[in-house]
Specification:
Elements (H helix, E strand, L loop, with lengths): L17 H17 L3 E2 L5 E3 H8 L4 H6 L2 E2 L10 E3 L4 H10 L2 H4 L3 E10 L11 E12 L6 H16 L8 H9 L10 H7 L11 H16 L21 E5 L8 E7 L3 H4 L6 E8 H10 L12 E5 L5 H13 L4 E3 L6 H10 L4 E5 L1 H6 L1 E6 L5 E5 H6 L4
Parallel strand pairs: 1-5, 10-11, 10-12
Antiparallel strand pairs: 2-4, 3-4, 5-6, 6-9, 7-8, 8-9, 12-13, 13-14
The protein binds adenosine monophosphate.
């Protein structure tokens, strides 16, 4: 019989990897909360219409990357899709739960899995995890970003038209449907043609120009290092004005760690008031790849404070009573469940990096004591069993 494996583009997170995951998740939560963001959790799947409307029909995600379950498969129900991104679900929730009425300006963050039917490679998976923030309802004046986008679209088309026969098949199609996507094509011919496209910032309208200049001024004053990228394109149609990415050189072809931007029209697009918003998402798997390459010391896996060893298996019920009592008092404790020899039990305690080992033998049972060994210093002490269990101290 063929062995059933984990699905392509997904992976198991094994116990030894959990400390790294916790470290990264805890860090993003701490940092986001330090900036005044509150956590929000939305369902893993949403009605497909939400993503079609928010991300845009011509985006790669909507065109070919969504895990969608159609009406016919779920009778009487509208088509649903495993979430491929979280900005649209959060805007939906913000509106559905009337959050703008409670407080127009909401700073929300999330951390959880997303699903895209992609061609897997290093740093590109079908299930991956993002942590991100959305600042919704910021009072930033609504701008007619499309006005300058139209002007730039015309300029781009004019520049690219003579090169059309040299562009890849995909880009020839993009030329009509969404010319901006040509800018981040990764095929060598298209890269060469894109090298000399006119810079976007000459085509900004007065409002966008002011917004852009203020942003640059703020970044400069805060000493933030950044570069202006005239080829940057994000895979979602809801963006207006600023978009940005953070990359890391260790990641190879998929080098974006974090991406985001402003989406001043999306709240209105999904039926809400005209309010501005901005957000970004960090890919946790890629963050971990970058951390590994940076050789940063990772936290140790959790270890039991106490391991209880028995000289004879007949003392196992006593050992069980001790670990249960210690656990109830908030102390992590473990014992052998496989009938191992004493020597082997000590080996297990060593492997688990247990701080203390309690040994139970005939002697201890008679005297109602426990032998407590500090595995770091090697010192052994004898303690009264009932006193120790009522108030464990090490
Ligand atoms: P996006 O939602 O496409 O803007 O992506 C934001 C961040 O999520 C990227 O910078 C990556 O770190 C991460 N990311 C996006 N797609 C994938 C994927 N298929 N596999 C792993 N990480 C991803």
């Amino acid at each position: 019989m063929k062995e059933i494996k984990v699905p392509t583009g997904t992976s198991d997170i094994l116990p030894e990897q959990i400390p790294l995951w916790r470290y990264v998740e805890d860090t993003v939560r701490t940092v986001f909360e330090r900036y005044g963001y509150s956590e929000i959790r939305t369902p893993i799947f949403e009605y497909t219409a939400l993503f079609n409307r928010a991300i845009g029909d011509t985006s790669d995600i909507v065109e070919k990357e969504m895990y969608t379950f159609n009406k016919s498969e779920t009778p009487g129900e509208d088509s649903v899709t495993l979430r491929p991104e979280l900005t649209a679900p959060i805007v939906r929730s913000y509106l559905e739960n009337n959050l703008p009425k409670i407080k127009q300006f909401q700073k929300l963050y999330y951390c959880g899995p997303l699903f895209r039917y992609e061609r897997p490679q290093k740093g590109r998976r079908r299930q991956f995890t993002q942590a991100g923030v959305e600042a919704l309802g910021s009072t930033s004046y609504l701008l007619d970003a499309d006005k300058c986008r139209d002007a730039y679209r015309d300029t781009l088309k004019k520049y690219l038209e003579p090169h059309l026969p040299q562009l890849c098949g995909n880009c020839q199609r993009r030329f009509q449907r969404n010319v901006f996507r040509i800018l981040d094509c990764k095929t060598p011919n298209c890269i060469a043609i894109n090298k000399d496209v006119p810079a976007f910032d000459k085509y900004l309208c007065a409002d966008c120009r002011a917004h852009f200049d203020n942003l640059i001024k703020t970044l400069d004053e805060s000493g933030m290092k950044y570069g202006l990228d005239k080829h940057l394109v994000r895979g979602f149609d809801y963006y207006t004005k600023t978009i940005f990415e953070i990359t890391h050189s260790s990641l190879g072809a998929q080098d974006a760690l974090c991406g985001g931007g402003r989406y001043d029209d999306l709240i209105a697009e999904l039926g809400g008031p005209s309010l501005g918003a901005v957000g970004f998402a960090i890919g946790l798997e890629r963050t971990m790849l970058a951390l590994e390459s940076a050789d940063i010391k990772m936290p140790e896996p959790p270890r039991p404070k106490v391991f209880v060893a028995v000289i004879d298996q007949k003392f196992s019920p006593k050992a069980f009573h001790i670990i249960t009592t210690l656990r109830q008092k908030g102390i992590s404790a473990d014992m052998d469940y496989e009938g191992k020899s004493v020597k082997s039990q000590f080996r297990t305690a060593d492997k688990l990096k247990s701080e203390f080992v309690i040994t139970i033998g005939e002697d201890e049972i008679t005297k109602q004591t426990l032998k407590l060994k500090n595995m770091v210093s090697g010192t052994e002490t004898e303690v009264n069993e009932s006193e120790f269990l009522s108030k464990p101290s090490f």
